[in-house]
Amino acid sequence: MSLSATCDSVSQKRSLSSLLAGRVVKRLKQEDGQRLQEATIQLLEQQQNLCSLLREVGNPDLCNIFRIQNGEQKRAESEGISSAVAVPLLVCELRRQALQLGVPVAVLSVKMMLERLMEITGTEEDKEEEDTRSGLLTSSQRVQLCLLLESSKELLSQGAFCPKLLWQEYRRDQRLPKLEVVYHLHSHNIVTLKLIIESDEGVRLWLVSRSKALCGWTPPHGEEETKQVQRKVLSTVVGVLLGTGFELSRESAAADRRISQLCCSVLDDMLFWLLDTVEKGVTLQCAGAGAELWIQMFDASLCGVSVSVDTLQRFFTHTLTQTLTYKPQLTVSDAITLQNEWTFAKSSRLLTSLFCKLAVIFSVEHLLCHLQQVLETHEVNWKHVLCFLSTLLVYNPRAQSSLRELLSRLLSSAFEVYDLENMITAFLLARQCALEGPAIFPSYSNWFKMSFGGGSGYHATSKKSLVFLLKFLSDLVPFEPPQYLKVHILQPPYVPVKHRSLLMEYVSLAKTRLADLKEPVEDMGLYEDVSGAGGASLQPQCQAVQDVEKAVSLFESTGRISATVMEASIFRRPYFLTRFLAALLTPRILPVKADARMSFIEALKKADKIPAAQYSSYVESCQKQRQQDGSELCLDTNDDPLEVLKIQLQEFTELVVEGNDGEISAQLSRISHTLSVIFPGRPDELIGQTVIRIHLNTPPSPELHVKVVNMILRNFCQCMVDASRANPPNKHSPWASRFVSVMLGNTQFLSSLICRLWDLFHNQGSSLSAAHVLGLAALVVHLHASMSHSPLVQLVPPILPTPVPVGEALSSALGCSTHADMLFCVRLCVAAVCYGICRGDSLPQQQQQDHILSSLYKKLLYLIPRLVPEARRTAITAGGPFSDHQEEKLPGLWSSVTDTNSTWMKTAWHLWRHPAFRQLEHTPPYQLFFSEWLDNELRVLRSEDALSDPERQEYQQWACLELYLSRLEEHGGCGGDMKNLCSHLLSAIMDQQLSDRSLEKLDYRVSYTGTCLPDILSRLQELVYEMEVTDLSGSRRSTEDVGDYLFTFVSERCSSTVTSASPSISTELSLQHTLNTWNRVLLALPAVLLIKVKSDGGRATLECNTLIEHVNQHQRKACSLPGLLSCHLTAHLLRGVIYASARCGRPREEVNKAWSQISLRCPLLLVSTVHWWERLSPVLLSLWHRLCDGEPLPEQLQLLTDCHNWACSLEKGLSSAALPAAAALLLAASLHRAWQGRGCDSQGFSAALNMLRPERGTQYRQVLVFLLFMCVNDHLSSLLYPQERSHQNATGFCTDLLLVLVDSADWLLIFKSNKQGVYQSITMVTSDEFTRLMPWAFYSLLLQQSAELLQRAVCCPGFLQTAVLCYISLLQLSLEGHTLTPATEPSDNQVTEPCQILSYAKQFLLRAISQTTPTALSSSQVRQLESQCADLDPEVAAALSVHLEPHSLSPEMDFL
After folding, report:
1. How far apart are CA 448 and CA 451, in angstroms?
2. What backbone torsions phi and psi does residue 692 show, to the nearest 5 degrees?
3. Measured between alpha carbons, how far is 247 from 698 in angstroms, rounded to an integer?
4. 1054, pLDDT greater than 80
5. Element containing residue 1267 per DSSP (H, E)
6. What backbone phi and psi angles, to 5 degrees, belong to 1000?
């Protein structure tokens, strides 16, 4: 090929690359390349174009010149050849032309480079496109520019290029550089940014504007490379500015200081732009996005790459100071007023993000120290200062203690020199901390009380300090939000008595300010929960609602209206009428059974504290409310809070997965704020309210509240599942405990949450999935772990007797009565206990127990052996922890919980054998006592039990005889004592029937019948038989037999029921209930056990002392019919006597002796036997003949039959019947029964009386007196229980008896409890209540008699004394409230009302006194009666003195 051909080719504008490519048609050798280079130089010397040559050098296709070759090595060789060819050619040409033009080579190369640079980046015509990309290049421009700069570096290495000159030419005519061009010049080390800053005077203006524009520009979708370049450009700019501006040098010249200040000013300009963006509130528009991008450049890990740690700390410190002091336009008074709007949740995310970036490399102590220094030396922007404090608290939970120390230092310093600045700083900081809620910092009221509420407060050292504090508080009054004024009024600082007037001046000023704010003291609550955390103070209506809840709670616990409410009804009547009563009488659907609120309203009404019109309106509104739906909840907010909460919870779930603790805390603060909007009825925290009431049977919460609670629960469960996938609980971040703290900070939300959890656990457990169970179990664990700073819960109805922690309240919702309930309960408890064990794995033992709920653990101790028979063979014993060589081979406990292929039974069995689980049972709070096991077992419904009847019997026998009998008593067992075991069984049986069973009443599925009571009774019978047969009751040498043990047991139960000498009505009813329950148990036990057979001189005899004592002390107090044992119980006791006698050598003799004792010492059993003899005699006679075949009937039993026959014949009018040789009480009881059996035939009764005239002998008179007692007893019963007794018949028979006995003094003895003589036994027939009411019966009976009979009664010996004593007793009964109002309408001549009885009795007594002769009573008797009447009724005492006391004839002797 000729040279001319080559020239023609060049003249035709063929490119260098195509020219070279066209010649490469075969494999090149090294010498061929050298010859080619020489030929090319000769060619270029003939015709040259530098721009085209440079464009060829910068063509990205240059690397593909030898594209026909294959392989990486060939490609590398071709690139090396091309570079070796191109750069020397270019340098050679530059030198040649520079020589021709007479200019330096560098000038020519800069001109050529600048032209190519402008060609690549665009000209002025491309300005519009440039603005749209904010200084960034396109992808193709970026590639060309990089190649160009690589060539420039080659020229620079050849000495043919000047970077400074390039920048000067580039900036000629004030051309604004593109930021990416600057970045590439810097990154290729051609013109560094530091050099640009040093040499370019206008750098501050264009660098700031270009940086703002680049931050605010958003790359098009899909341009990921552009996004990366954008961040690289900005981070490079920040790194250079930071290093240049804040790197310290030992010998810094003036020029260096100027450059450093310039860099600082650029960074400050960008910071101020950022803060201005925050101030404008633009967080979603492009400006906000740009500010957020600039904040990301402050990342410590990003900035720390290019600078040292010290430099980074200086920069962050400087930036923090600039932020805290930026535009200090707000005064202290503004800060006091607006502080509530500057909490973390309400602050701009841009600002809080900036503070997080600046604070990340410093300790809390360093940051607080710097904050204090800034506050002392600068005018500050209070909004930024307080927002920074909130951010520090939220993101760093450990900051609380350091803040306390800072506040303490500020207060100490303030009172040392009486410095107002430190004082106001301390108050502002303390209030800001309290605004973040109780999970972050204690309330303002607590802080104020701790600082100034005691004699050791900062102000208590001198009067000057006190005046300083009160003067400071007074100066704050015009700017104070009302909630802080209320804190200062209701919890005032400690002031000595002598300076009390100073405090009163402040209180007066604060109350005036509250009145100006339309929140006068009259609207302050009775039990006001003062707090600074709620923002604006509670509305009066909300405060009144809290007062009502507190008042009702106190009323329910004490039974009385609290003194605070009574005082308010007098001294704060406007608040009481317009606020308190309005909140109390809010219309609602009234429950069928009166609850505490209804009872409280009734008590106020009876005390005349509720106006009649207001009460009537309330009742009418409640009736209307029953027909209306619940009102909707209204929220005053622009955004839908439900949607806001949903988004926040989604973001929170993502943060939990990422594990960013700081962001988790921040997000929880936002969630807490949203919850306070949805649940506005409470402040963020309540001071003093330690108990919240949960109404389980009220209508459901508003729909919005239900949705929110469900959303929170779902989110918590999802977060728990996500967190558990990665790590076991002991390696989880503290997100769950912080989440629970947020829940505990809002009492209204917490109430709704507990109600929802209760409903889920109690009614919907079987429908919950495994994920739900796991999440809810973990939630219960964290609620329990937070009980130290959570309120107690009082369930209504009171299923639990006292307020309990939240975890215990929820545990009580878990039932074990049915198979389905047991399955859900064991699933939840297994998950909760496993979570608690794993969560506390690395903690000390006490803290481990904080995560394991004892009530849930005990449910597992009950359920696992019941449902998993294998567990009974490896039961936890009282001897110590379980040890098994297989434990080392067991898989991880938590993996068994989260394994989807595992069943609840496998997990439970794994947990049961786990060492941590077994060790807990030897800790007292976690021991399942035998009494608790019995209570659980008695709640099981037999028809829905997981066990069949034989399986249940086997399980119960195992639990009683193998598990608890041998276990030590201190560990909840019986210590090997069979009596102890029986006592537990008896107590459980009785407690089950005595208990209120409130939980079952809430559950329609639970029936009052069908429980395991028959099974437990069977176990009791088995044990009692075993004790009787083997004569074992804990000790082989025990002298107490089974019967004595049983009667001793019930005696102790009754004694524990009656705790005072004068029992109340409720106590007596409880005692009756106890005895009725005992009787049902007694009837299920063998009758032979009730009578003791003892050996007396080798002869077996009966001893009935224990039985007689039991009937006299206890059974007479629980008679369903006054003065009568039930037929079943009477028969059971008599069968016991006959059974026991059969074990003696002479059964007939022993029955006679036993019955003789009963007749003399146990009149109630005697009267009851006579009453039921018609029904009992066939049974007892048959039993006697069966046991003692051939033995004649005992005389005492035959006597009962004879008396019965005699009474029947006498009642029929057969006078020939001879009087049996029996006791008077037996004869009277037989007559009384015969009269009742004949339908109360008055004619037959009168005929019988004629045959029993008292003149016929003492025995006849005694029979009549006993009979009168029984009729008076009927009379009382007819007054008290008119449905069961005929009042007219009873009164008529009493009248008939009085006509016969009125002239004899014996009939009066039945009304004298202390002088009854032979009639003393009547006191052992009826209850003490009837004995106390005998004076009432005395007067109610006499006042219905004729005048003639009354006149005869007055003349009876001893009548007046009896009448006076009964009147005194009647007065005492009335004063003590023991008289019972009868339930019948009195007849014309009947006086039964208590007030009427007293009035007529007094009139009758005064007439009787006036008609009685002075000789009827001795002087001592008269004086004794006078002294007894003097205090109760002086008029009667005076009548006794005037009419009956003999007066001296000598006036001079009156003084004696």
Report:
1. 5
2. -115, 145
3. 69
4. yes
5. helix 1258-1280
6. -70, -30
Residue 899, token pair as written in the block = 């394994």
Distance CA 881, CA 921 (A): 8
How many angstroms separate the CA atoms of 1431 and 1411, rounded? Answer: 24
Is pLDDT of 143 > 60?
A: yes
Q: Which of 145, 35, 119 is nearest to 85 (CA)?
A: 35
At residue 239's C-alpha, the angle toward residues 234 and 241, to 5°, is: 95
For residue range 1346-1375, what is the model confidence (pLDDT) as tens digits? 999 999 999 998 899 999 999 998 888 888
**736 vs 731: CA distance, rounded Å:** 12
CA 167 to chain centre: 71
Q: Are 1017 and 1086 in contact (CB under 8 A)?
A: no
- 812 φ, ψ (degrees, to nearest 5): -70, -15
| Residue in the structure block whose two tokens are 């889920």 | 760
- DSSP letter assigned to residue 685: S
Report residue 1386 as tokens. Answer: 């009195």
Helix (H) or strand (E) holding 1103: strand 1099-1103
Three-state SS letters, 199-242: HCCCHHHHHHHHHHHHHHCCCCCCCHHHHHHHHHHHHHHHHHHH
Average pLDDT over residues 149-167: 81
In angstroms, how far apart are the furthest CA atoms of the chain? 183
Q: Could you tell me the pTM of the whole model? A: 0.69
* Range list of H helices, 913-977: 915-920, 930-938, 949-957
Asked if 975 contacts 969 with a C-beta cutoff of 8 angstroms, the reply is yes
The one-letter amino acid at 381: N
Q: Can you name the residues that pair with 1320 across neighbouring β-strands?
A: none
Lowest pLDDT segment from 9-13, 1026-1030, 1038-1042 = 9-13
The answer to whether 1122 touches 1277, Cβ cutoff 8 Å, is yes
Q: Measured between alpha carbons, how far is 304 from 319 in angstroms, rounded to an integer?
A: 16
pLDDT of residue 884: 43
Closest C-alpha among 1374, 1377, 1393 to residue 1433:
1374
CA–CA distance from 531 to each of 71, 346, 483, 1188 (Å)?
79, 19, 6, 84
Kind plus residue range of the DSSP H or E element containing 1093:
strand 1092-1096
Beta bridge mates, 693: 794
Contact 1293, 1235 (CB under 8 A): yes
- With 0-12 / 13-18 / 19 or more C-beta atoms within 10 angstroms meaning exposed / middle / buried, residue 270 is buried
- Dihedral sign computed on CA atoms, order 683, 688, 690, 695: negative
Confidence of residue 1214 (pLDDT cuts 50, 70, 90): low
Query: Among candidates 325, 319, 403, 394, which has minimal Cα distance to 361?
Result: 319
Task: Give the strand pairing for 1092-1096 and 1099-1103.
Answer: antiparallel
Give the integer Cα–Cα distance in Å for 592 and 12: 109
Report pLDDT digits (tens) over 249-299: 655 567 778 888 888 998 888 889 888 888 886 444 445 677 888 888 887
Nearest CA among 298, 158, 302, 146 for reference residue 215:
298
Integer Cα distance of 357 and 763 in angstroms: 49
If phi over 0 gives left and psi between -120 and 50 gives alpha, with beta otherwise, what is residue 559?
A: left
> What integer best gives the mean pLDDT of the chain?
80
Dihedrals φ, ψ of 1093, to 5°? -105, 120
Tell me, letter by letter, the H, E, C secondary structure of 77-107.
HHHHHHHHHHHHHHHHHHHHHHHHHCCCHHH
DSSP collapsed to 3 states, 413-458: HHHHHCCHHHHHHHHHHHHHHHHCCCCCCCCHHHHHHHHHCCCCCC
Locate all alpha helices (DSSP H) within 325-379, ordered by sequence: 332-338, 349-359, 364-377
**Closest by Cα among 994, 1071, 1080, 1059 to 1328:** 1071
Over residues 735-751, the pLDDT tens digits come to 998 899 888 888 888 98
Residue type, 1251: M
Q: Could you give the CA distance from residue 1150 to residue 1148 in angstroms, rounded to a whole number?
A: 5
> Residue 951's pLDDT is what?
94
Beta bridge partners of 1095: 1100
